[in-house]
Amino acid sequence: MLLDSEVTQIPFFDLRRQFARLRADLLAELAAVCDEQSFVLGPRVQAFENEVKAVTGASHAFGVSSGTDAELLILMGLGVGPGDAVITTPFSFFSTAGCIARLGARPIFVDIDPRTLNLSADALENFLACRCILTSRGLMTDGGMRVRAVIPVHLFGLCADLDRLQDLCDRYGIALIEDAAQAIGAVYPARSGPQRAGSVGAAGFYSFYPTKNLGGFGDAGLAVTSDDELAARLRVGRNHGMEPRYYHRMIGGNFRMDALQAAVLSRKLRDLEGWSTRRWQIAQHYRDVLAPVEGRFLQLPVEPYRDKLGSCGHTYHQFVIRSPKRDALRAFLAGRGIGTEIYYPVALHQQPCFIGLGYQPGDLPVAEQAASEVLALPIFPELTEEEVECVARTVRSFFSDL
Ligand SMILES: Cc1ncc(COP(=O)(O)O)c(C=O)c1O
Predict the structure, then answer these.
(1) What count of other Cβ atoms lies within 10 Å of the Cβ of residue 195?
(2) What is the pLDDT of residue 103?
(3) 181 C-alpha to center of ligand 1: Å?
(4) Of these four, 69, 284, 296, 329, which has the most CB atoms within 10 Å of its CB?
């Protein structure tokens, strides 16, 4: 047993432990692709797409070069461009909003829910009712932009309030696109029954960046939809809009997935469910030890779907606590050899490249406060019980002394 007072080294994340366990299998997969010498798309990518469909619940899945490119491809497939606006959360990784801006459209941020840190359905409803008007051209903002879509993010592995968001999108005739980059396998208790993250809206996407719950050996991603027409555009769009060869009906990009990534991901997919369960168990361990010190100085992540779904309602890509003493806690843990991370230190509307959008400090207060308080603790399936206990007790000792 590790003692709180000992200087320990508990990494925030360590992929080498996973690789050590899967080494033989993964190297065999890579060797097989090398023997085949077929590296871009092809049967391995197709096989992975078919396997992963069961986990995503969508009827079409397209392996692409990254989560970012999956989002870009979906927005291009919907024809989003200059003059359009897309509503999203200010509390996410940059690419959620960056893809919108790269297409010449305008990202519009609405605030997050203080408990879940996901896009707030109340804030969205308020924005749509007060700042937009339905016209014969579609939904227009008071600034004259055409609103095309809403992109909620299932942050840290917890699904956003999809029933309410979908209702609002239906009412106003706009598309719901799920950023499920961090939430593959997470389940949402829809009123029609449990649904997988990414499968509820018009389209969804996932990231297989190496640190994700399902991570490749480099960049990779997936776009999914159950809309046949959109699927047709995604299929050709990921390969420069080319069909047949050297004929281009639409402008796409080189968003193709590599066979090497598909081979790695297919093998790892077999373990994903077990990994997600282990992440949830680690989260429960943290909860049990930290519950006595939860209060003014410490908030634990919420699990709003736990009663209905048990461990499936949160895949804990990250275990993110909140504290007004965040920076002191982080230094305290670093001094005891415990790694932590901050996701995300700056809300998107305050990023320097988005200054031109005109947001002022205080415009999205919930996201701004979250950015100053969040701290991610180590959570990955290979953490030992001793390590989890040590992290939990060290965090608890910090708050017990306040
Ligand atoms: C919420 C979110 N959206 C989008 C992305 C982009 O995915 P990728 O890094 O695969 O391009 C990420 C990945 O970091 C993410 O966390």
Answers:
(1) 19
(2) 98
(3) 5
(4) 69
